[in-house]
Every structure is written in structure tokens, then in C-alpha cells.
Specification:
Layout lengths: L1 H37 L18 E2 L7 E5 L1 H7 L17 E3 L15 E3 L2 E2 L7 E3 L20 E8 L16 E6 L7 E9 L3 E9 L8 E10 L12 E13 L3 E15 L6 H4 L2 H4 L12 H4 L7 E18 L2 E24 L2 E25 L4 E12 L6 E8 L2 E11 L3 E15 L2 E14 L4 E3 L6 E2 L8 E17 L2 E14 L3 H7 L1 H6 L4 H5 L4 E14 L3 E21 L4 E24 L2 E14 L3 E4 L2 E3 L12 E11 L2 E10 L2 E2 L7 E2 L2 E11 L7 E10 L7 E5 L10 E4 L4 E9 L1
Parallel strand pairs: 6-8
Antiparallel strand pairs: 1-2, 2-7, 3-4, 4-5, 7-8, 9-10, 9-40, 10-11, 11-12, 12-13, 13-14, 14-15, 15-16, 16-17, 16-18, 17-20, 18-19, 19-22, 20-21, 21-24, 22-23, 24-25, 25-26, 26-27, 27-28, 28-29, 29-32, 30-31, 32-33, 33-36, 34-35, 36-37, 37-40, 38-39
Length: 754
């Protein structure tokens, strides 16, 4: 399969290259003559000074909210050694923690190691939009949609988010939205081949049709990626096939249709976590991993590498039909659809017939999501108006619907029934929104409100007394209805054409305590004996909400920029584990409150036209406001403690230097001291990481345009450190899962355009 994919990709590239080169050769003489005739009409070149033609970040000087955008050039320079994971491009931004157990971004699929201003993104993709649409967000392959070569730019929103741009499942940690590259006006092809550490290989090919008769433009791309794990047996990924396409067509001057799609197939082996004691002694446990062989001992064999893996495939389609009604108004409809199926296998210990038993759990998923955003924009005499409606539906998870259980034996895995089984049901979202804007000279006002109405699907659960599938009323609940009003207000004042001050308030939504369901099923016997049903716990399953206040400034004077921000937020109904008096067990409930306050700074200066220096930094105090009732004897003393896996200080420093066709981009990242538990008894030391990116553009060769060589170094000095952690904000001592960060990695790439 792998060799066939590579053969097809290379064959497609060389067929395209060959035909283009033949066409180039046939027209060479005519073109030379035309150039000679046109030489008399040539104009003197105009040279523009200032930023030297390279900008990593797109400056925003008038919007009354906090956002940072990476340009296409920024994604290429600091987007990581792999172009398959959009999150890696954000690692240098202030208050952003992006960590992965391996260098290429395809590690444990349910632990993407993402935190923004200290808030964990527990459900992968739940705050990640594509073209403003919530196409991603389920466990599985949908967090890796679209190769980064097909992405034009990334925008990160923090604090209060403008109403019309906040259409995501979870916005309390901020929001990431990426814009896709449209098909090119001229026909052509782009090919890139990469090889790197740990047998990393990636091939990418994009073909653009150019503008066809009738005005249609299209592109299609394919990539294949695989790599060995840097510690232990297995690969990460074993494979990743990714096919993207896009199509645009203008129906006159007033109607535009855009269509994008993606197919992905990915398989990868997971990385084994460490305990806190192991994390403190990385000199001994740096290569600690899953077992490479079976032992016949079930307690050990659940840690066999091939029993801890995931495999998914899926496809997505999204569209944009835009109609310009007048010169100052337009209407757009954006439908989307995503289908995802696969499994995640993990070795765990479960209660089976009243005994803790080592098993291999296989979480099977087969679900879809669909939705549409309809929006009307108009410039009215008194204000700018945006009004819209978001409809979304999806099948579970969360919470999960099907966990199969296998027992490790000397002969392999033996199926042992279901650990958890319930009917698939739909979550539905209705969300109308309204946003108004008005400018009074130098003063800009923006305000809006979004109404969020959610229907959580019913849970019809089953258990197997005597091996017979039986409806379980104790572990079943009906549909749950919740609604929230999410206001937003922003004000900015222009000090000059290149400087402004702004203040923003916004209410965002976050995580729901869905883990209450699988937790109940795993301990059903104890809950049932105490007379506690899932319905008793489900009453405290809510949407977390958070109020955000940002006071910031932007100064952009061409040669330098400075963006300071002060922020404050309060988080209500945070999901934590609390003590249930009736059953004597811990249950996940939306009952905690927390607050966060701090400062961020983005600064950059072009010392010369060919040298950019930039630095980002933050301070963040994120703490629970009151103790948590998590003990039979009383409250857990957590008030004022820093939330787990949240450094108070962090920074990044980078340079972008051009010397002719050579570019050199070093990046230095600092992560401050943090704790792995809510009692702050498991401290982790601060650390520095250094990356280095080199690129050299060659002269055009025959029909190959812009040939380029790249050499990327990740963790240049091979620093041993703890990167990601996998646990909740209220993790108790001894229960955090720690993961080693990626080691020194080198990747070489060569690319061409034709």
C-alpha cells in the first residue's frame, strides 16, 4: 500500500512536469521573440523599503478584540517540521501551550497537549474552525484535516470573541480558525519531498487547474506521511493518506461558489506515559515505552505496543455560496459535512465481575456531523450589521457509545464483551446571533449577542447480566436541554493610523462533564447498591461558561510593532471530580469556579530590511476560587492554587534573516515552572527549547520554478523535558499522566513549482 501510494504520487508529478516542460519548450522561441519586442516597453523596477518583504504575523490595528494571525510565510517559517498538524504553527504565540509526544504532531490522538491562557482543550478540535465552520471536533481523524500547504493563514482569538466568529463547541480557551488557499489563477503544480529523523517520510503534490473556460478554478492535492516512533516499537504515524480539493466559480459579479473537501486515513501507535517519579528522572526513563513483546502476563501485556494504537478514516465537505445583494450588502450560506470512523485501543484496568482486571479496551467510533451557517452582512446608514444562524447536529461522542473489552492471553486477545454500550444519538445546536458595529471618527464600537441552545442526545444504555443484552434504566437518561446567552462588546480608539487602544468583554462556553457517563458505567455496581442512577448525576452536567475582559494596545509602525494585553477571566461550572455523599464515589460534575489574570506581550522589529527580530511573552495566574468537595472528610484545599499544567511565565524569541536566497529562522521557546496536580505537590522545572529552520531558494531550472531546499531542526540541543500532560484541571497527586517531549529531530525537504 505504501509503495503503491508513493509510486502513484511520483508518477503523477513527473507526468505533470513532463507535459509542462514540453509545452514550455514548444513556446520558448515564440516567448523569446515576444520578450524582445516588449523590451522597448519595459518599465523601471520599483523597490519598496520597509519590512523587507517578509512578515510572519499579520498585524491588526483596528479590531476591538485580541487576535493574532500567522501569514502564509509565518506558517512556512515556524509551522513545525511537519505540515500536517495546524496546531504546531501556534507554539510561539503568547499564552499558548502546544506539546506533542513526538515531533511530527501525530501522537496520542486524545491528548493533543493544547492549552491557551491555561485552559485545557480536552476534546480535540472543539475550538478549531475551518473557514469559520466547526467541521472538526470529534475524537478521531478530524483534528488533522487539510495539509498546511493548503492553508493561507491561521488566526488565534483570545479573551472575548466577536459574536460572528465564535461558532465553535468550546471557546473558553480561545478559538483557532484557519483559512484555506484558493485555487490559483494560473495552472501549475507544486511538489515537496521530505525525509527526516526516525525514518520520517512525507510526499506532497498539489495541482492547480488555473482559470478554466467559464471561470472555474480548481486544485487537488495528495500527501503521504509515515514515521517511526522515537521511543519504543511502532510508528507514529504508520501511515497518513490525505487528499484535499478545492473549487471556486464566479457567476457574474454578484454570486460566488466555493467548495472544499478532504479525505484522510491515519493509523498511529500511542506513546506510553510516565508517573511523576519517572518524570523526575528522565535520565533513566527518557526512552520508557510500551513493551515490544508479549509476556503471557495479562497485567504486563496490556502495555504491549500493538495493543495501544488508533486508526481512523473520514471525509469532509464544506462550501460557501455568497451572493452580493447590493454594493453594501451580501448573504452567504456555508454548509458542511464530516464523516469519521475508526477505533482507539488502549490497555487499562477495569472492574470485571467485581474484580480489577487488566483488559484492552477498543473504543469504536462511527459517526457524522453536519451543519450550516447562514449570514447576512450589510453596511447600513447608522451601523454595520451582521446577522446569522448556526445549525449543527452530530452523533456521539461525547460521551462514548461503544467500548469493547478484550482479555490478553498467551494466544493474543480474546473478546470478552462490552465494557460500555449505548445507542448512538444526536446532539443538536441552534444558535442565532446578531452583531452591530459603528465608527465615530477614531472610535470603533462593536457589540453583539449569540443565543446558544443545545440538545444533548439521550443515552439508552445496555448491560449484560448473564451474558444477555439488557436495557439498563439506571445508566440511561433522556435528552437534556440547555441554553446560554453569550454577549460580546468591544471598543477601540485610534491614537493614530498605526496605533490604537481597545477593551473587550465576552462570554464564552466550554467543557461539559460528559465523563460522568463512562465513570458511572465502570462503577455501576457501587452506584446501584447506593441507589444512585445516572439521572441523579446528570442534573449537574452543564456547559462551562467564562467571562473574559481584555485591555490591550497595538502599535504598528512598519519597522516595529508592539502589542501588550492585560487580561482577566472568571470561569463558572468547571468540570471537576467531586465527592458524592450517597455513593461515596468521585463523580465528574460542572460545579467549580476559577479565575485567571495576567499579561501578554508581542513585539517585533525589523533591524534591517532583511532581519526581523520578534519576541512574545506572558504571565498567567490561573487558580480555583474555592475549595473542591472531593474528600469524604471534607473539602480539598485547592483555593488559590495554580491549575495543573499551567506555567505562570512563558516566552518565545525568534529571528528571520535573509541573505540573498538563504533564510535563517532560529526560534527559542521558554516554558516556566508548573505543577502536575491541583495541590501543587508535583512541580516540574522550567525549560528552554531551540529550533532552527534553514531554507535556500535555487535559480529556476528548466521548467522547475522556485526550487527550494529546507533543513529544519527541532529541539536543537536535545533537551529532555516533560511536554504534554493528560488529565483534568483538578488532577490529584499521583494520577497525572506525563509525556516526554520530542527529542532532537532533523528534517530535509526539497520542493519545486512547475
Amino acid at each position: 500500500m505504501i509503495w503503491l501510494s508513493r509510486t502513484i504520487l511520483w508518477l503523477g508529478f513527473f507526468l505533470t512536469a513532463g507535459s509542462s516542460c514540453l509545452a514550455f519548450a514548444d513556446s520558448a522561441a515564440n516567448q523569446a521573440a515576444q520578450d524582445e519586442d516588449a523590451s522597448a516597453l519595459s518599465l523601471e523596477a520599483v523597490e519598496v523599503a520597509g519590512k523587507g518583504g517578509h512578515v510572519l504575523f499579520d498585524a491588526k490595528t483596528d479590531e476591538p478584540w485580541t487576535e493574532t494571525s500567522l501569514t502564509r510565510e509565518g506558517i512556512e517559517r515556524i509551522g513545525g517540521v511537519s505540515q500536517g498538524n495546524p496546531l504546531q504553527a501556534l507554539r510561539t504565540l503568547p499564552s499558548v501551550q502546544i506539546s506533542s509526544e513526538e515531533p511530527y504532531g501525530y501522537g496520542n490522538f486524545f491528548n493533543n497537549g493544547t492549552k491557551i491562557r491555561g485552559q485545557r482543550i480536552k476534546a480535540p478540535g472543539s475550538n478549531l474552525l475551518i473557514e469559520g465552520l466547526q467541521v472538526t471536533g470529534m475524537p478521531g481523524s478530524s483534528q488533522y484535516l487539510f495539509d498546511m500547504e493548503n492553508v493561507e493563514g491561521l488566526t488565534l482569538y483570545k479573551g472575548g470573541i466577536p459574536t460572528s466568529r465564535s461558532l465553535a463547541f468550546a471557546t473558553n480557551a480561545g478559538l483557532i480558525d484557519y483559512r484555506l488557499r484558493r485555487p490559483a489563477e494560473e495552472p501549475g503544480a507544486f511538489f515537496e519531498q521530505s525525509i527526516g529523523s526516525f525514518d520520517y517520510q512525507r510526499s506532497f503534490l498539489r495541482l492547480d487547474s488555473g482559470r478554466l473556460p467559464g471561470g472555474t478554478r480548481a486544485f487537488a492535492s495528495y500527501s503521504f506521511t509515515d514515521a517511526d516512533k522515537w521511543r519504543g516499537e511502532g510508528q507514529s504515524p504508520d501511515w497518513r493518506h490525505n487528499l484535499d480539493f478545492g473549487l471556486t466559480h464566479d457567476f457574474g459579479d454578484r454570486v460566488k461558489l466555493e467548495l472544499f473537501g478532504n479525505y484522510i486515513s491515519i493509523k498511529a501507535h500511542d506513546f506510553r506515559s510516565l508517573t511523576y517519579d519517572q518524570a523526575r528522572h528522565l535520565d533513566r526513563y527518557d526512552k520508557y515505552s510500551y513493551n515490544s513483546e508479549l509476556t503471557g502476563n495479562a497485567a504486563e501485556d496490556i502495555h504491549y505496543y500493538d495493543y495501544n494504537r488508533h486508526q481512523f478514516e473520514g471525509y469532509s465537505v464544506l462550501a460557501n455560496l455568497e451572493i452580493r445583494l447590493t454594493e453594501k450588502s451580501r448573504f452567504s450560506v456555508k454548509p458542511y459535512f464530516n464523516k469519521n470512523q475508526g477505533y482507539w485501543m488502549v490497555g487499562v484496568t477495569e472492574p470485571v465481575n467485581g474484580k480489577k482486571t487488566p483488559v484492552v479496551r477498543k473504543w469504536e467510533m462511527n459517526h457524522h456531523r453536519l451543519g450550516v451557517v447562514a449570514q447576512y452582512d450589510a453596511e447600513l446608514p447608522l451601523f454595520d450589521l451582521t446577522a446569522g444562524y448556526w445549525y449543527h447536529e452530530q452523533e456521539r461522542p461525547g460521551p462514548p457509545t461503544k467500548w469493547k473489552r478484550y482479555l490478553p492471553t498467551s494466544g493474543g486477545l480474546v473478546y470478552d464483551g462490552y465494557s460500555l454500550l449505548s445507542d448512538n444519538s444526536k446532539h443538536i445546536i441552534h444558535s442565532p446571533y446578531l452583531q452591530l458595529g459603528r465608527t465615530f471618527g477614531r472610535l470603533h464600537l462593536t457589540g453583539g449577542v449569540r443565543y446558544l441552545y443545545e440538545e444533548f442526545g439521550e443515552i439508552e444504555s445496555y448491560y449484560f447480566p448473564g451474558g444477555v443484552k439488557t436495557h439498563d434504566p439506571l445508566a440511561s437518561v433522556g435528552r437534556k436541554y440547555m441554553d446560554k446567552v453569550l454577549p460580546f462588546a468591544g471598543i477601540s480608539f485610534d491614537l493614530s493610523d498605526r496605533a490604537n487602544l481597545y477593551f473587550t468583554y465576552g462570554r464564552n462556553v466550554g467543557r461539559t462533564a460528559f465523563p460522568a457517563y463512562p465513570s458511572y458505567v465502570m462503577r455501576r455496581g457501587k452506584f446501584a447498591a447506593a441507589g444512585v442512577s445516572l439521572s441523579d448525576l446528570w442534573s449537574n452536567v452543564e456547559l462551562e461558561v467564562s467571562d473574559h475582559y481584555d485591555l490591550g494596545a497595538r502599535f504598528d509602525f512598519g519597522r516595529w510593532y508592539l502589542n501588550p494585553v492585560l487580561f482577566y477571566s472568571r470561569h463558572f461550572d468547571k468540570a471537576v471530580n467531586v465527592y458524592d455523599q450517597t455513593s461515596g464515589l468521585l463523580v465528574n460534575q460542572n460545579v467549580a469556579t476559577a479565575r485567571s489574570y495576567g499579561a501578554e506581550l508581542e513585539v517585533g522589529v525589523h533591524l534591517m530590511d532583511n532581519l526581523l527580530l520578534a519576541a512574545n511573552g506572558f504571565y498567567n495566574n490561573f487558580e480555583f476560587e474555592k475549595n473542591i468537595e472531593a474528600l469524604a472528610s471534607g473539602e480539598l484545599d485547592v483555593k488559590g492554587n495554580q491549575i495543573s499544567d499551567t506555567p505562570m511565565f512563558g516566552a518565545s524569541f525568534m529571528a528571520d534573516y535573509r541573505l540573498g536566497d538563504l533564510s535563517v529562522t532560529p526560534v527559542v521557546r521558554y516554558t516556566g515552572r508548573r505543577y502536575g496536580d491541583v495541590l501543587n505537590q508535583e512541580p516540574l522545572s522550567s525549560y528552554w527549547l531551540v529550533d532552527l529552520n534553514l531554507a535556500y531558494r535555487l535559480k529556476n531550472l528548466w521548467c522547475f520554478k522556485e526550487p527550494r531546499l529546507k533543513l529544519n531542526f527541532l529541539n536543537l540541543f536535545d533537551k529532555k523535558y516533560i511536554g504534554g500532560m493528560d488529565a483534568s484541571d483538578d488532577t490529584h497527586p499521583g494520577s497525572m499522566a506525563y509525556y516526554q517531549g520530542a527529542p532532537f529531530t532533523m528534517v530535509f525537504s526539497i520542493s519545486f513549482r512547475i
